[in-house]
Amino acid sequence: MYPSHIPMYYNYPNSQEAYLYSTPFQEENYYHAIPGDRQFGGFPPPSAPPGQGPAAGPPTSPPPSFVPPEQVEAYAVDPGGIARCLFSYTYVWLRGFEEFWFYPTFVGRNSVSGYRWTGYRWVYFGIDLRQIQSFTCY
Predict the structure, then answer these.
(1) Which residue has the higher pLDDT, 130 or 19?
(2) Which of 94, 114, 97 is nearest to 105 (CA)?
């Protein structure tokens, strides 16, 4: 009835343990078979041109202490438009009323990544360009 290579263990039916327990897959540390950093699902982080991406590092000082006035809302954010803000303090307004200081280090076709200010430190962050309502660079 059951394959012979799967060990079967029967427990009491009314106990807290499972009634039928089998362990068909015996390999330990399955995810260690994939090389790279586990932070990105077992694969290494995407490579970026030299001087861009997480290797560029966060800014060494906090962003300006003021909140700039919001610019005219754009229908869509162009990668070329936000590329002029690379490696400079950028204030970002997202669709859904979230806003924050951002330090972009990489601009792709559909996304931008860099460092986001949490209020006391910079954390690496990436977002789809469609989520950005408007932005301004300093």
Answers:
(1) 130
(2) 114
